[in-house]
Fold this protein.
Amino acid sequence: MTKLELVRTLTQQFPQFPALDINVMAHTVAGLSLLELRLLKLSHQDNPVMSKVIDTAIAGKEREEADIARWEREHQVYDDYYHCGGKW
């Protein structure tokens, strides 16, 4: 999930927040790995807004990783087919 996609999602989830606050929250979590996001979530359990922001970022990262894994599997199937001379 890119920072822009995260900003759009957060703007829809929190229409009452100013754009600057949303940009700061998105910038804070956009570049973090899944592990870093989960650790950050543990430290912000008492803050429901930040917890929701982190959950949104985690969901986006998990979707990205699932897409990448699917593309890698498709690429591997193509490679296997190609290396067999186009015959199974």
